[in-house]
């Protein structure tokens, strides 16, 4: 059978960087960072600039296909089936410029945080815990960093978004232009256009102490309860996370053991801030003064593509000793992670976007299948989800303040009335019912990528 009319139309776009099912490069081109997700789009395209993005969007509309943007595919589990969709991969939109005097960076949509953190040094960007996460996907969904309690969400640091709308127009949204889009993009990202570049503020951080403290998991209940108490009054210069997890590979002496690990950063002297935790006599204490760029690898996340179960998250108002015990019992050997919220992360920013803060004292993060754990957390929950750390199922509106949701839906209806754009966390236009999207999973053994 010869190529379809749609395939003929798509073939010549993006300087030939369009891969159709059956092409030799299709399998590599469609592979996400999360190799557990078997994405099989109608085509994969690698546009290099806004003009190529616009041409692709127009062609998609003409042949009756939809378009999903993807940087790395860290969140590929949220996208769902793509058989009627062109996967627009942003990797060819590179470029990074840093204006140190103005403390600002402009970053192409294909860049990863690992590209940015060294380049902006000694200034700091509000990057995630894993260095190979994409700058755009993280920034548009909120962005919890090790600087968060002092400096807020990365979405608040965005000063301009360059994008191509579903109608094929290249626009720049900032504080003075496209006010609705600028608001909606900072939290609702993929629903409002294909972002081609971002500008965001950088921060001077003259002194950073960072590292981890570790205890045997047998002491987890006592130590986690103490961390929860400490976190309630810790200075805003400190942002930490507590995890029950197998010893990371870097801790060779503890290999094979289950640990309670507290890691994070202190913007300033660490001594007084960490004294209550150090008083609990951790077996490992690596906290030291480090360059800001070292924070990119603080969480000891393995880098590069791999199968990943995905994540579910729930913001918690507060926790007490009974809550800690219930969470640990429910987590069992499956592990759990609590991220320390509060401080600037909890303060709404009037000039911010659709997600300018996250209410709550802690964010519980665990595998999507950890039902017992989320049930144990329910009495403490604010009801708010953090969508960047949430797989695509469930109520997307719970990722936003109630007042933001109708405004997001109205803006979606105005800028993408036919739903050309596919987003991992879809915001239905004011006229639509939210679509149900089930993630597709690879059957059988994981491939090596
Ligand atoms: C190991 C790991 C560690 C993490 N650590 C943190 C953390 O510390 N803090 C935190 O807040 N989050 C964290 N996350 C979550 C992460 O921020 C989100 O998964 C984020 O969406 C990933 O962005 P990406 O571009 O790499 O992924 P992708 O899957 O490529 O994209 C994610 C979403 O953004 C959209 N998108 C991407 N590029 C564009 C574009 N150019 N235009 C429009 N839409 C676009 C996609 O359509 C998709 O909906 C982590 C995730 C993992 C897997």
Structural notes for this entry:
The chain has helices at residues 5-11, 26-30, 50-63, 113-120, 135-140, 148-151, 154-157, 179-188, 220-233, 271-278, 321-331, 371-377, 404-415; strands spanning 18-19, 43-45, 66-70, 85-89, 96-99, 104-108, 123-124, 158-164, 170-174, 194-201, 203-204, 209-216, 238-246, 258-266, 284-285, 288-289, 312-316, 336-340, 362-366, 421-422. The protein has 449 residues and is α+β, with helices and mostly antiparallel strands. It has a domain at 209-395: 3-Layer(aba) Sandwich (Vanillyl-alcohol Oxidase, Chain A, domain 3), CATH 3.40.462. The strands form four sheets. Strands 12, 13, 14, 15, 16, 17, 18 and 19 form an eight-stranded antiparallel sheet that branches. It has a five-stranded mixed sheet with strand order 1-2-4-3-20. Helix 9 crosses helix 11. The radius of gyration is 22 Å and the shape is globular. The model is unreliable at 435-449 (pLDDT under 50). Flavin-adenine dinucleotide binds at residues 68-76, 78, 90, 109, 128-130, 133-134, 136-138, 140-144, 189-190, 194-195, 301, 308, 388-389, 423-424. Its cofactor is FAD. This is FAD-binding oxidoreductase. Belongs to the oxygen-dependent FAD-linked oxidoreductase family. Residues 37-205 form the FAD-binding PCMH-type domain.
